[in-house]
Amino acid sequence: MQLQSIPLHLVVIGGGSVGLLYASRLLLSGQSVTLVTRTREQAQLLTQAGVTLRQLDGTMQKASIRSNPMEDGLPQGDLYLLAVKQSDLDAILPDLRHLSAASRVLALQNGMGHYEKLTQVLESRQCFFASNTEGARRLSPVEVEHTGTGLLRIGPWTEQDERDPICNAFVELANRCGFQAVYEDTIKPFAWRKLLANALINPLTALFEMPNGMLLESPHTVTFMKELFWEAAAVAERCGEKIEERDWQEVVKICRNTSRNISSMLQDIRRRNHTEVNAINGYLVQKGRETGIPVPMHETLLRAVLLKTDMVKGKGEAAIDLFG
Ligand SMILES: NC(=O)C1=CN([C@@H]2O[C@H](COP(=O)(O)OP(=O)(O)OC[C@H]3O[C@@H](n4cnc5c(N)ncnc54)[C@H](OP(=O)(O)O)[C@@H]3O)[C@@H](O)[C@H]2O)C=CC1
Ligand SMILES: CC(C)(CO)C(=O)C(=O)O
């Protein structure tokens, strides 16, 4: 069987930065895609205006799109790309429960906790996870900017006997539409390493309001990051992931490679949204408690980001002036 010849109908859930990037790229290369949005207004705008992708070189491309709001229920699909934040997964779990046993879901979230949530409502053989370093920013409900190339790793949480044909076909397809995608036999080690990077870069950039690369410019932030890294590494190791010095070097590399990026957590704070800190530092705190590993620095960061979120959400217009 030629796996790349499997025709897939793809359903992207979430019309934010990642959802619009994936939907537009897949549509522009001729794939069948339906985008499911939270609001009816966005679905209508997309159906009327199409989706516009601003490429890295500044060129714009537009594609027609079929879009429905979530309240109309999920359409039939072979693969559902979950492009909502960790904190929004709970709201879509009841709909995922009704998916056909032949369908697969691919969770694109940063942070942790999605494996536990998805396997409450789906068979684990249906659940796939991505570690995604491709950057995107939603410019409007119908327009998205590709902000950085990266690597899309896709795999089951733990090894399966055979590669899943649908996910394997999606990896082929993603490569054909411009993503650099690879199928991993297990995503867990990559998810842990991404968690460690996000647990350092995201809260520090959000609290100090700096782009990722600036974290490397002061010995104070570098020392802070190193201490946070090894605190989190002790939890990872207790959970079965051996973390090494070269993993720390990878975090430094991510900061360098994304030096001008405004991290997703800082973007959320600037938009006065809730952040994914609970699924990132909060997850480490929870696992630390369960495994008896103290994580006082991550606990403090978690509190500080939650406090900052409350402050910017409560300050209204003043917060816009402050962070705009
Ligand atoms: N942006 C990036 O470059 C990267 C992001 N990630 C991860 O990908 C995930 C998605 O991030 P991102 O796209 O940036 O986030 P956004 O906040 O831009 O988009 C999330 C989207 O989900 C929608 N949504 C929320 N609830 C529902 C629902 N019940 N039904 C349908 N749609 C819903 C939101 O709708 P509405 O707008 O109406 O609220 C929003 O459009 C996160 O976990 C993030 O950490 C990972 C790597 C890079
Ligand atoms: C890799 C990094 C830190 C890039 O900004 C990211 O994943 C995020 O901002 O959430």
From TrEMBL:
Signal sequence residues: none
Cellular component terms (Gene Ontology): cytoplasm
Domain Ketopantoate reductase C-terminal per the UniProt entry, residue ranges: 190-305
Protein name in the entry: 2-dehydropantoate 2-reductase
Pathway note: Cofactor biosynthesis; (R)-pantothenate biosynthesis; (R)-pantoate from 3-methyl-2-oxobutanoate: step 2/2
GO molecular function: 2-dehydropantoate 2-reductase activity; NADP binding
Entries under Pfam families matching the protein: ApbA, ApbA_C
Family statement drawn from the similarity comment of this UniProt entry: Belongs to the ketopantoate reductase family.
Organism: Brevibacillus borstelensis AK1
Protein keywords: NADP, Oxidoreductase, Pantothenate biosynthesis
This enzyme's EC code(s): 1.1.1.169
One biological process term in Gene Ontology: pantothenate biosynthetic process
Catalytic class of the enzyme: oxidoreductase
Top-level taxon of origin: Bacteria
The Ketopantoate reductase N-terminal domain, residue ranges: 11-158
